[in-house]
Design brief:
Blueprint (H helix, E strand, L loop, with lengths): L1 E3 L6 E3 L12 E5 L2 H11 L4 E5 L5 E2 L7 E2 L5 E2 L2 E2 L4 H12 L3 E4 L5 H13 L17 H9 L6 H28 L8 H19 L4 E11 L4 E10 L2 E2 L5 H11 L4 E13 L7 H12 L3 H13 L1 E2 L5 E2 L14 H14 L34 H4 L5 H17 L4 E12 L2 E12 L27 E13 L8 H11 L7 H10 L3 E4 L2 E4 L1 H13 L6 H15 L5 H22 L8 E6 L6 E6 L4 E4 L9 E3 L2 E6 L6 E6 L5 E5 L8 E2 L2 E7 L6 E6 L5 E5 L7 E3 L2 H19 L1
Parallel strand pairs: 3-4, 3-9
Antiparallel strand pairs: 1-2, 5-8, 6-7, 10-11, 10-18, 11-12, 11-17, 13-16, 13-18, 14-15, 16-17, 19-20, 21-22, 22-23, 23-24, 25-26, 26-27, 27-28, 29-30, 30-31, 31-32
Helix pairs in contact: 3-5, 5-16, 5-17, 6-14, 6-15, 8-12, 8-13, 9-12
């Protein structure tokens, strides 16, 4: 098109319209697809593209040591096998991006992932390319994008130092175990200490000798007040009672009958029970193990899902909790204010303390992130239950309740203590009544059993008490319990072994190596675990020394804070370690693992099969391996008969180690049961063996194994459980 200018013969051609070029986006790289989906929703897909690195993309090689000891411990990193296409895809997107933000997890591991990404994508590590956030919510993400920072090389050095220390121990010490004991073994820096802790407890249990002791309960009647009172004999001649034999108990019982008893003191007071702190990684794993029966690994896996984001209907993917790897009990002011508003609205002003509570973290806490809490207190568990799996709901509810409770007032109890005296004997009892629920309206502290009201009759000092019954009861001291998921994590934390992100991997590693087994939710060391530990204790005391390991953890913290050089730490560790390794190579002969020979013959080659230790239980294997690879499970006879075919009911194990019961004639007979059969109890109606089912509250019910018979009855133990609960509640009140 031409346009003629007035008064001129010249013509101007109209300029062609420029084609609009697509505007470049900002690339954000996170670790997981679930997190990427949630974050992209908050940032908007028009300006941002969010991709996942699927964790680490570079690491030390598996096939070689990968550390140049002579060249300042220089690591040799390679691209992880199978991630080549992903790396190419990320590089391609990075070339077309206007900006690149590295948004891996806000911890040392996440910082190292960002550092490796920067190397692969050609990003200068001095450039502000790193964004971090403690929770995946829109305000937190937008705030992070506004304040990018450089990669923290101190945190990267701390992660590299840990990785190289573990590589030195694993790749130098494990081959020694292969040569001296058997192939496939491994030794780890923190795993070996954990195995020692479990083995030491097992030795305590095996060496334990039970000691007899007696308690004496006294039942009184007060004629003046028309009431009865149950107490426990507490002191004899001003000293704490110590009855160690039936003869002593009988002598005291006889002497008590001749005493005149009077109420010496009635003490009434108020007791306040403070709420627990919000969850750290350790306390979350402990509580989930105690209350939900979750392993540490399962707890962290589900917590990761809640952190990264769950689709909650119209809202789409929402990050439900803050970052779950933390040792801090600190809470953001905004979150505290939201909780206080919620408490006032839903419970009333009486449930809200005057000032927001402050909880002190343990002495060596890094305090890098907040405590584990819900990102939005108004997203109550019932409100989003329909969008969560059963396990997600249980864990979210636990986190939500604990956080809300931590911001509430204390529970208040009215307590009463009664002391009754007769001659040289002193009996005591105590009771309490909940006057104000406080935080217990939401959450019951995991470290204490749920407290029930124990109401005592109204008696007064000087009241005469008539002794009605003397009830001596024999007891025996018990050995220390084996560690479970909750107690081993608590012990590791107390001893300073590992850090929040390492507890679950430590447990999974020692289980996977066959050094310990999880039986009835408790850890038992295997014979292999003892053999390996004995060797390490003899030649590598530092490796299995809890104090030395804790000091190394503190040194890693110093590197993260910029107060120590990683190469100095590695040199201090490696020099004596290498000397000891050389000495052990020369002095240790081959260690034979004694094999238990069974009376079962291999049906393939005729040899007597031997007992081997598997990951969860023992099994039979042919000693002719590798020529003969025949194996079979060891079937533990329960003594009960199968209700379907009359065969033996035997104990079996699932792939995860859980015990169940089934017919020996499987697969011809398909009878299976989670409940244990009772060899000495049969149904009165049809003669079939009874089975016992144990409920979570401890109650046990017996039922007939014959599916056509409806016989059910209470187990006698239920009455004992009731008595024990009453005594336990009594003792807890007395201690308080």
């Amino acid at each position: 098109m031409e346009k003629k200018l007035e008064g001129s013969k010249k013509t101007l051609k109209a300029k062609p319209k420029k084609k609009k070029t697509a505007s470049k986006k900002t690339l954000v790289i996170v670790e997981s697809p679930a997190k990427a989906k949630t974050i992209e929703k908050y940032l908007g897909h028009r300006k941002y593209e969010v991709l996942a690195s699927m964790g680490h993309l570079r690491d030390l090689p598996k096939s070689q040591f990968g550390i140049d000891i002579e060249n300042d411990f220089a690591p040799k990193y390679i691209n992880i096998r199978g991630k080549g296409d992903l790396i190419k895809s990320l590089k391609k997107e990075a070339k077309n991006a206007e900006k690149i933000y590295l948004a891996s997890d806000p911890d040392r591991e996440g910082e190292a992932i960002a550092w490796h990404l920067a190397y692969l994508l050609g990003i200068d590590d001095k450039k502000k390319c790193r964004i971090v956030f403690n929770e995946i919510t829109k305000p937190a993400i937008n705030e992070a994008v506004k304040a990018p920072r450089t990669i923290n090389l101190n945190l990267v050095d701390a992660q590299q130092a840990r990785r190289m220390l573990d590589r030195i121990v694993g790749y130098k010490l494990s081959p020694l175990l292969w040569r001296k004991i058997k192939k496939g073994l491994s030794a780890g820096r923190v795993q070996s200490v954990t195995v020692k802790i479990i083995c030491d407890r097992e030795r305590e249990i095996r060496a334990f000798i039970p000691e007899e002791y007696w308690t004496i309960d006294l039942n009184f009647k007060c004629e003046a007040r028309k009431c009865t009172l149950a107490t426990e004999l507490a002191m004899v001649d001003g000293k704490k009672i110590a009855v160690t034999s039936e003869e002593s108990a009988a002598r005291i019982k006889k002497d008590l009958q001749h005493q005149q008893f009077v109420v010496e003191e009635v003490k009434k007071s108020e007791r306040r029970r403070k709420p627990p702190a919000p969850f750290t990684t350790s306390s979350l794993q402990q509580d989930a193990a105690r209350k939900l029966g979750f392993t540490s690994r399962r707890t962290m896996m589900i917590a990761q899902q809640l952190y990264e984001g769950v689709n909650v209907g119209k809202k789409g993917p929402v990050g439900l909790i803050t970052y779950m790897r933390t040792d801090s009990t600190r809470i953001a002011e905004l979150a505290q204010n939201e909780a206080r508003n919620y408490i006032t609205e839903k419970f009333g002003p009486a449930y809200m303390p005057g000032k927001p509570p402050v909880y002190t973290a343990k002495k060596d806490a890094q305090d890098a992130h907040e405590a584990v809490r819900p990102t939005d207190i108004t997203l109550t568990p019932p409100l989003i239950e329909g969008f969560l799996s059963k396990e997600q709901f249980k864990l979210y509810r636990l986190i939500w309740q604990r956080f809300l409770a931590s911001q509430m007032t204390a529970a208040v109890y009215d307590t009463m203590g009664i002391i009754i005296k007769g001659g040289i004997y002193t009996a005591k009892t105590a009771g309490s009544v909940l006057r104000f629920a406080g935080f217990t309206a939401v959450y019951d502290d995991a470290d204490k059993k749920k407290e029930k009201d124990i109401i005592l009759p109204e008696v007064f000092a000087g009241d005469v008490m008539k002794l009605q019954k003397v009830l001596p009861e024999q007891h025996f001291t018990e050995p220390p319990p084996r560690y479970n998921d909750a107690s081993i994590v608590k012990t590791l934390e107390e001893k300073g072994i590992g850090r929040p992100s390492t507890y679950a991997p430590i447990i999974e590693t020692i289980l996977g190596r066959g050094y310990v087994v999880r039986r009835d939710k408790k850890f038992e060391p295997t014979e292999l675990g003892f053999i390996v530990l004995d060797m390490l204790e003899q030649y590598f005391k530092n490796i299995v020394d809890a104090k030395f390991t804790a000091e190394l953890e503190n040194s890693l913290d110093k590197i993260a804070d910029g107060m120590m050089d990683k190469n100095n730490l590695l040199a201090e560790f490696y020099s004596p370690f290498a000397t000891t390794l050389e000495k052990a190579e020369e002095e240790i002969g081959h260690v034979d693992i004694p094999e238990e020979v069974s009376d079962v013959r291999c049906e393939k080659c005729g040899r007597l099969m031997v007992v081997k230790q598997g990951r969860f239980s023992k099994f039979l294997a042919c000693p002719g391996f590798p020529e003969c690879r025949n194996t079979k499970p060891i079937l533990k006879d329960t003594g009960a008969k199968c209700p379907k075919c009359g065969g033996r009911v035997v104990e079996r194990h699932t792939k995860r180690g859980r015990i169940f019961y089934g017919c020996e004639n499987y697969p011809k007979c398909d009878f299976v049961s989670w409940d244990a059969p009772l060899a000495d109890k049969v149904c009165d109606e049809c003669g079939t063996n009874m089975f016992q089912h144990r409920y979570k509250n401890g109650k046990v019910v017996l039922y007939c194994g014959n599916e056509n018979c409806k016989t059910r009855k209470d187990h006698p133990i239920n009455e004992e459980i009731k008595k024990m609960k009453v005594k336990s509640a009594d003792k807890s009140v007395k201690k308080a």
